[in-house]
Amino acid sequence: MKRGMRRFGVFDFFNTLIMLGVCFMTLYPMWFVFINSLNAPEQAMLGTVNWFPEAFSLASYSVVFNDKSLMNGFLITTLRTVIGTVAHVLFTAIVAYGISKHKLIGRKVYMKIALITMLFSGGLIPTFLLMTKLGLYDNFWVFIIPSMYTFFNMVIFMSFFRTIPESLEESAKVDGASDYGVLFRIVLPNSMAVLATIGLFSAVYHWNDYYMGVIYIRSQEILPMQTMLYKIIAENSMSFMQQQAMAQFGARLPGNSIKFASMVVATLPILMVYPFIQRFLVKGVLIGAIKG
C-alpha cells in the first residue's frame, strides 16, 4: 500500500452507501417532477414512477408560458428577488459595520434589542396590523421593507468585518475618507465572500417565499409566482389555465401536468444561480463563524 493511502474499510462502505441513499432521496423528487413535466398530459395524470418521459410533450410548458398572470408573477418574483437582495445586503452591511465598532455609543443596547427580535416575534395579528398602518398591505414594498434586516445575517457580517485589519481603515481616514467612504471603498470590496453568502441567503428566501403574498397581497397584478403556485397546488385552482389548454390543444389538460411544469419554472432559475455562488457561500460562512 502506498504511503498516504488508507484502506477502504467496512465503515467507509456503509457510510458511502448511506450517503448515496440520502442523495437519491434528495434528488429523485426533483427528477420526478421534471420528468413528469415533460410527459404527455395523459401520462403525467397517471403519476407512475418513470426514469424518463414515456411520451415526450411540451404542452404543459406551453400553457404555463402562455398564461399572462403566471408570467406576470414570475416578473414580480424576479423584481422582488433582485431589489430585496440588494436592499437587504446593503442595509444589513451598514448596520453590521456600525455595531462592529466598539466606540459606537449604545452598542450593547442595540445588540440586546436586535437579539430580542431574533428570539421573539410580535405575532401574526400585530404584524398584520402594523403592515396595514404603514400602508404596506397590498403593496409591492411589503416584500422589501420588512426583510431589509435580520439579526442572524448581521452577526455574520459583523464577524467578518472584524477580520479586516484596522490599519486599512485608519489609512483611509488619514486620506480624508468618511465612515461611509471607508465602508464602500475599503470594507465591502474586501468582503466579497460574505456579500455573496448573505446575498444568496436573501435571494433564496425572496425567491421561495409564498407566505407574504398569501397574507398581505390581494391584487393579482403584484402576486408572486410562488404564491400562485401555492394556490395551484393547495386549492387546485386550475380552471383558467385548463381553459387555455382546451382552446390551444382541443382537449382538457390534466392539472397534475400543469403543476409539474409550474414547479420546474419556479425552481429552475435559483438552481442555475447557486453553482456560481457556492464557493463564496462556504468561505463566507466559515470565516464569519470561526473568526467571529
Commentary on this structure:
With 292 residues, the chain is mostly helical. The chain has a single domain, classed as MetI-like fold. It contains 14 helices and no strands. The chain is globular.
Concise structural overview:
The protein is an all-alpha fold and 292 residues long.
Write the layout of secondary structure elements.
Layout (H helix, E strand, L loop, with lengths): L9 H28 L3 H6 L12 H8 L1 H32 L7 H13 L4 H10 L17 H11 L4 H9 L4 H9 L4 H17 L2 H6 L8 H11 L3 H11 L5 H36 L2
Helix pairs in contact: 1-14, 3-13, 3-14, 4-7, 4-10, 4-12, 7-14, 8-9, 10-14, 12-14
Order of helices and strands: HHHHHHHHHHHHHH
In total, how many domains does the architecture comprise?
1
Note the quaternary state here.
single chain
* DSSP helix fraction: over 70%
Percent strand equals under 5%
Point out poorly predicted stretches. 243-254
Strand segment tally? 0
The first-level CATH class name = Mainly Alpha
Q: What is the alpha-carbon Rg in Å?
A: 24 Å
- CATH-level-4 superfamily name: MetI-like
- In the CATH classification, which architecture applies? Orthogonal Bundle
**How many helical stretches?**
14
Give the averaged pLDDT, no decimals.
Answer: 78
Query: Separation of termini?
Result: 42 Å
Coarse morphology: globular
- Protein structure class: mainly alpha
